[in-house]
Design goal:
The complex is a heterodimer of chains A (180) and B (299). By secondary structure, chain A is α/β, with parallel strands linked by helices. Chain A contains seven helices and eight strands. In chain A, strand 2, helix 3 and strand 3 form a beta-alpha-beta unit. In chain B, a hairpin with a 5-residue loop joins strand 8 and strand 9. Classes of the chains: A alpha/beta (180), B alpha/beta (299).
Chain lengths: 180, 299
């Protein structure tokens, strides 16, 4: 099961504002506080931050809500964060802050059928991530066969994905993250 | 009381003339700013003028006087742009001031608006967003993605006041037809605050590292070109970095004046000097962001 946090209603509750724009660092700090509270009060291993109905997202707010949250979650064992409802208007800010911190996150765009990696990534990591979403659980050989790669290349990509918490890995096997 | 003449055309360049007219800072005597002959002022000029009045008030100096423009059209325009309403807070206005009409001129996306807290930024971004998108798309031919980027730049620029200035400031947004200069329309965001300025903001952490060259110009270079912030948090300094990235993509320009220096990231369509130092002192910081209509669009 995945924990879903809808940011637009959370924003309105947090700021009592009629607007749906996620702007300013103070807004981001307040939102992240509530998100962290929600995560700590739940038993789910994966948290989905849903951006549906969020208007503008600026760099400072994205830094607090996405980048800093990922950095906090990185301290916890086996907790994963995915983004959903991402539109073109959110992409710039999210990509920018993730690159600045050297982070990556799995994201499903609004109206998109398949997820992709935002932030720091490489063509191999992006390809492997999408293949794993399609193939489901397996090991490096399975991925290598599917992509016509060497096993070493597939293993490298899997290791990068696992380190960045873009897949779940255990004992030489991997599983894709649950996506909405 | 000393009289300082407001340039007939007050903008980012002629602000230096106004600053020179003020002389030493803080001024040792009361000042009367004479705008009777004013013919035009950009949002940058109007917000900077307010900063001047605010700085004098915050320094505990005698409330400066401001004579309003004699030209009725100019006076009416300044009123509709929200200037006199704001100026009444920090100037003793001399002359008949028109009542502020309900609607600002059609080219004014945002009249002169105070920014004192994060809530002001949130509200002003929310207020301007829909209208800005419509105008930027229809008149400047900007793609929807670019109009969102405009909102981000606007938000980050306003936030800098709250985060770094240590006091309040003013923002205004306007579109122009730069027929002669560029042959296209532009949208201009002007933000001015009466705060500590970039040099003082970064002095404690950066002055020693820079050494002899330390000053307003060096501080501006660190903040604008190297994304250095006084906060240790590595996430800080992203606002200006993000603004530069956005402006690079859409051939926009940013110019920041603080203290005695002005630094600009200059696109190919402009011939401004990237760094001007040893200018006459002007209090606070002034930022101007200019985004041109895209080439295929209406001019």
């Amino acid at each position: 099961m995945m924990q879903r946090i809808d940011l637009a209603p959370m924003l309105r509750e947090t700021l009592t504002t009629p607007y749906s724009d996620m702007v300013t660092r103070s807004t981001g700090v307040a939102l992240r506080g509530r998100i962290e509270q929600a995560i700590s009060g739940a038993s789910h291993r994966t948290t989905q931050l849903n951006f549906t109905a969020v208007g503008l997202l600026d760099f400072s707010c994205a830094d607090e809500v996405v980048a800093k949250l990922l950095l906090r979650v990185a301290d916890e064992e086996e907790h994963f964060v995915v983004l959903s409802g991402i539109t073109d208007s959110h992409l710039d800010a999210i990509d920018h802050v993730l690159e600045r911190h050297g982070l990556s996150v799995a994201s499903l765009g609004e109206g998109e059928a398949s997820a992709r990696v935002l932030g720091v990534t490489t063509p191999d990591v992006q390809t492997a991530f999408q293949a794993i979403q399609r193939l489901g659980a397996g090991d490096a050989k399975r991925l290598a066969d599917a992509l016509s790669w060497t096993v070493e290349r597939a293993a490298d990509a899997l290791q990068s994905l696992a380190l960045r918490r873009l897949i779940q890995a255990a004992g030489g096997t991997y599983r894709p993250l649950s996506m909405p | 009381m000393r009289i300082v003449t407001i340039p007939a055309s007050l903008d980012d360049k002629t602000l230096d003339v106004l600053a020179a007219g003020i002389g030493e800072w803080p001024p040792s005597e009361g000042l009367l700013f004479d705008a009777r002959a004013a013919q035009w002022a950009s949002p940058y000029g109007l917000t900077a003028l307010l900063t001047l009045g605010q700085s004098m008030a915050e320094a505990g100096l005698t409330t400066p006087k401001l004579t309003v423009p004699e030209n009725d059209d100019v006076k009416s325009y300044w009123a509709r742009a929200g200037f006199f309403h704001a100026a009444a807070e920090c100037f003793e206005l001399v002359g008949r001031v028109p009542k502020k009409p309900a609607d600002p001129p059609s080219d004014v996306l945002l009249p002169v608006t105070p920014i004192r807290a994060f809530e002001d930024v949130i509200n002003v971004v929310g207020r301007i967003q829909e209208r800005a998108q419509r105008i930027l798309t229809s008149e400047l031919n900007l793609a929807p993605k670019a109009t969102m980027g405009f909102g981000m730049c606007f938000s980050e620029t306003c936030q800098n006041i709250v985060e770094h200035a240590g006091t309040g400031g003013w923002v205004a947004v306007q579109t122009y037809n730069w027929r002669k200069r560029l042959g296209r329309k532009v949208v201009v965001i002007a933000v001015s605050d009466s705060g500590m300025g970039f040099r003082r903001s970064l002095e404690a952490t950066e002055a020693k590292k820079v050494g002899d060259r330390w000053g307003d110009g060096a501080a501006l270079e660190l903040a604008l070109l190297q994304n250095i912030s006084r906060f240790r948090d590595p996430g800080r300094g992203q606002g200006l970095a993000g603004i530069r990235r956005y402006l690079g993509r859409w051939q926009g320009k940013i110019s920041v004046r603080s203290g005695t220096a002005r630094l600009a990231v200059v696109p190919s369509w402009d011939d401004d000097e990237p760094l001007a130092e040893y200018l006459p002192f002007f209090p606070g910081s002034q930022v101007q962001i200019t985004i041109p209509a895209q080439e295929a669009g209406p001019t």
